[in-house]
Amino acid sequence: MRASLLIIFFGFAASFSPNLSAQSIQQLRIAFEKAPNDTIKLNTAKQLFGRYVYSKVDSAIFYAEQVMALGETLANPKHKSTGVQYLGIAYTIKGDFEQAANYMQQNLDYYTRIGDSLNMAYTLNNLGVNFLYAEDWLLSSQNFLQSVRIKEDLVARGAIDSKEVDLASTLLNVAITYDNQSDTSQAAKYFTLALNEARMVKDSLNAAKAQNGLGNLALTRKNYEQALLYFKSIEPVFAGQNDLFSLGKLYNNMALCYAELNNRNELMTYAKRATEVNKEIGNEQSEGLALMYLGLGYLKMNRFGEAIETSAKALSIGQRLNTKALMAGSYKNLYEAYAAVGNYTKAYEYSLLFQQTDKDLYSLERAEQIEKLSAQYEAEKREAQILQLNQEKALQTLALEKANSEHNLLLALLASALILAALIIYFYRKIALSKKQLNQENAELERLNKTKDRFFAIISHDLRSHISAFQSSGRLMKHYMAGKDTHKLETLSKELDKSAHNIGHLLDNLLQWSIDQLHGYEPKPQPLSLKAVALELIQIYEPQALAKGLSIHSTIDDNHKVMADRGSLFVVMRNLLANAIKFTEQGRIQLFSTIEENWVVLGVQDSGIGIPAPMQAELFSINEQKIRRGTQNEKGTGLGLHLAHEFVRMNGGKVAVRSEPYEGSTFLVYLKHA
């Protein structure tokens, strides 16, 4: 999830502002303990919840429970529901999404029962935020959009005015959902809708948050100057509202922009501001990022001692919060600073840790460049074809005009002209047919060339990533062995085993693909027992499945035999089984067989994360757009399913898939009956 975006919850009686000083907090705590009655105590608990919810979530949970309990004591369902809603919000921020959803659903049921549409919309928004934090985009979008519909209906009916319903906040959350899925066009659309709505109701704070979102999109596109224009325009708004939480994140983003623009002075200015603000409100993660940028600023100014000290503080926060990006940036600062002062032992140690932590430096830029050049080539080729067709059309028009002007010629000449015209048309059609065939062949060659380039870009990325991990792990192993650190060696050995398995699977598929492409593979069909091949594969993959908490079961009929090449069938079943394991977390994988007409159908069914409909259309092609990581961040190339599809086709069969997101997948392989 993008750390720079502020996801918007709704509160009721308390403003979720973390902007009070430590002294004010202590005064509130004393006031809570010494409150003369339950009503004052409840209101104080709400204020304390608002202070702690973004900084010390366990303290926030304690005060939310107090709000709920005091609501029951006062026999006030509204106050009790506020406490329940606070608990839902706090558990979302804590990361216990199931518990959070339970509390929010209780509130939704309550408001539905009493017919409170406005608070239903607020609660649906908070449910959407919970699912957004859990990265369940489907449920997140459903709840946000349902909240939007209720709010729009309330305004349309005149039940409440536009400003009070706060439609802009939920539109902002819809935009954030799309932004977290890297759908920048939809994100920009909803940020703009939120901005227009906020401006219409003169809501300067939400207008600023929408502009902040648009600034973050510019930051994602590496358009740092444009991002700074947005950020600078909203800084006075957050400052005027004393919204220190938003200011802390804003200053971090501005520091990042100036770092990328190599403006050392402004980088230092905003990194210091970000550090002070985030420290004051107790937002540790944002404070850590600010310290990391500050360390980078000291490094750029050759103040290496201060760079080391500041980056070490940032690293400590990153390790405590287990924030990989913060750890990687701090490691990089430290190894560059130590190298600059001549402490090469420390520099080497931190460089190894940086390489181990930051595994996503390499991207498929080459494949993207190829796609871009290919698109340009196709556009130019279409323009050339249009020009050629226009020229041919002009020639035909001239020929017709000439024929009309010679209409009174002798019949013999006319007959000769008709014969000549017939010959011209015949040869023209023949040439046109040849040209069409040539264009089709060129298009196929372009497609194959594009597939080849995309394939090698994907393969080089995965091989480079795995081999780089092996190299880094080897150096770390030597380092840990010298320090006799057995615990880290044990953890490292598990990572090495996983990498070795992934490389082996990748190379097997690469070899099979290469043989197929070189036309060196000829299937040799023979009667085969599906069950025998399945049992052999289960023995190979069962340890990997058990490591993920999966069980593999086979109900393949002993009598179901197919006519297929054994090597092909093994590759097909191996890749389908490996795919099921990769995208299933703690569930069940079922292998089964049936008879449909003249086919023997092999099924591989899992209870995994499923496949979105747009991805299913290109599932068996080599296309980086369909590549995604497994449930434990396992890498893939998309080559396995392509191989399975090709080998089934070469054996006279076909492959089908049935899947719904989050409801598992079933791959069906149709083979000839033996």
From TrEMBL:
This is histidine kinase. The chain crosses the membrane at residues 409-428. Residues 367-451 form a coiled coil. Keywords: Coiled coil, Membrane, Phosphoprotein, Signal, Transmembrane, Transmembrane helix. Its EC number is 2.7.13.3. Residues 458-674 form the Histidine kinase domain. The lineage of its organism: Bacteria, Pseudomonadati, Bacteroidota, Cytophagia, Cytophagales. PANTHER family: HYBRID SIGNAL TRANSDUCTION HISTIDINE KINASE C (PTHR43547:SF2), TWO-COMPONENT HISTIDINE KINASE (PTHR43547). It comes from the Bacteria. InterPro entries: HATPase_C_sf, HATPase_dom, His_kinase_dom, HisK_dim/P_dom, HisK_dim/P_sf, Sig_transdc_His_kin-like_C, TPR-like_helical_dom_sf, TPR_rpt. It catalyses: ATP + protein L-histidine = ADP + protein N-phospho-L-histidine. It is an enzyme of class 2 (transferase). Residues 1-22 form the signal peptide.
